[in-house]
Design brief:
There is one protein chain. This protein is mainly β. Among the domains are: 106 residues, no CATH class; 44 residues, no CATH class. 9% of the residues lie in helices and 41% in strands. The chain has one helix and 24 strands. The longest helix has 25 residues. The protein is globular and about 60 Å long. The N and C termini lie far apart (83 Å). It holds the Pfam family DUF6515. InterPro entries: DUF6515.
Length: 279
């Protein structure tokens, strides 16, 4: 009898241990960065990121209701929604709104003397046990453009813009491509980049085709001769399909399937591409 009780006790302890491990694994992962503790909650597999400005019939995941300035907002996996008729519209969060958890995939960095968190065009700073949406720090660099950013050319310089924030592409000494905040609130700004230091902190089912009725084969179409390839020195308005981006010697190039190298240039406030080499 005593042996049976010991076995039951051992099984009970094992089950309790497994339950504790399961609960801990289900908790958000915590990453310690520079003395503060941002919380990382993974988005579910297959989650589709919404596009700012678009309308949806429902919010794509669990959401938290927020109120700011007397207006309701819904926060879900780093995206903000406002009710719009019978839909939900993805919007930019207002400066000053607070959330309790950072979105999955955020990027942490320090700029000047302050730590920041970046996600899809939104910047956060720690505040009162949570995180506050703040203005984009002009001069800071981020690793990714926000989804939906559009290309604009101003004074023969290329920028990316979303919701009044401007980004300028820069290539670092190690070949990494970063995007520097060049303006906010709809206008470009100047800054002394040497005076401010930045530090990166440790951070569908297949559908069976419908049956088709047999159709007699059509007469073969006459082949259209392929357009001649541009030569080195030629300037074109668009890149060929299948072009890939590479960085060589801290310069960005576009390589076509025909192994032609293009370099971006701006002419009359319009983006063009020049063939600079071919192999």
């Amino acid at each position: 009898m005593k042996k049976l009780l010991n076995i039951s006790k051992t099984i009970g302890v094992t089950v309790l241990f497994l339950l504790v491990v399961s609960v801990l694994n289900a908790q958000p992962r915590v990453r310690h960065v520079g003395g503060y503790r941002p919380v990382y909650t993974p988005a579910p597999r297959g989650y589709y990121a919404p596009v700012r400005g678009y309308h949806y019939t429902r919010i794509g995941g669990p959401s938290v209701t927020l109120s700011f300035g007397g207006m309701p907002y819904y926060y879900s996996y780093g995206y903000y929604y406002r009710p719009y008729g019978g839909y939900y519209r993805v919007v930019a969060p207002p400066i000053g709104i607070h959330v309790g958890v950072l979105p999955p995939g955020y990027w942490a960095f320090s700029f000047g003397a302050f730590p920041y968190f970046y996600f899809n065009g939104v910047f956060y700073r720690q505040y009162n046990g949570g995180y506050e949406v703040v203005d984009a720090p002009v001069g800071a660099e981020v690793p990714h453009l926000p989804r939906g950013a559009r290309v604009v050319v101003i004074n023969d310089l290329k920028y990316y813009e979303l919701d009044g924030t401007y980004y300028r592409e820069v290539i670092k000494d190690n070949g990494l491509v970063r995007y520097q905040i060049a303006g906010k609130n709809g206008r470009l700004e100047t800054y002394d980049s040497a005076a401010i230091q930045q530090q990166d902190l440790p951070q569908e089912q297949a559908v069976a085709p419908a049956p088709q009725t047999a159709v007699p084969p059509a007469a073969p179409a006459q082949a259209t001769p392929a357009a001649p390839l541009p030569k080195v020195g030629d300037v074109v308005e668009a890149l060929p399909d299948g072009t890939k981006t590479v960085v060589l010697n801290n310069q960005k190039y576009f390589v076509s399937p025909a192994n032609q190298y293009y370099q971006e240039l701006i002419k009359d406030n319009k983006i063009m591409y020049k063939v600079v080499a071919e192999y």
